[in-house]
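Exercise 4. Each item below gives a protein and its sequence. For each, produce the structure-token representation.

Item: Luminal-binding 4 (Olea europaea subsp. europaea).
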Amino acid sequence: MEPVKKAMKDAGLEKHQIEEIVLIGGSNRIPKVQQLLKDYFDGKELNKHINPDEAVAYGAAMVKEAEEFAKEDKKVKERTNARNSLETYIYNMKNQINDEDKLADKLDLDEKDRIETTTKEALEWLDDNQNAKKEDYKDKIKEVEVACNPIITAVYQRSGGESGGMSGYADDDNDEL
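Answer:
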């Protein structure tokens, strides 16, 4: 009974969740095994009428179906990640241009308007393209970056900081070991 208990534990199932007990091959001819299983599952009837060849074919079909779903799940995850990256970029950009501690006081009106227009249009595109493909989301984020990054770089250069990274951070104190 240990293999049965282990299989159920691995599957995260309790006895009451088992709907059918199927015996395939030699196990359906051993009365002691049948009785132990029937007792373990509180008298539930055992199905002993499955052809072993059918069981193998059914198992192979289940594995194939699981592989197909795994591929589809991967595509959905990649698409969702691409959409989330675009949304995150847009909202980070909106926060930066409205936060006095970041870029709000360093942007001139035209620069701020261009970024606001770009992010507004990108959000509208997201609303209109809820089910876009991963590639579409990636293309859109590139489009938004092409519009916003030169402005951000120019602002950092004007303010004496480095584009990207943490401006003014000195790494002089670190000694190599």
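Check: The beta strands are 21-24, 46-50.
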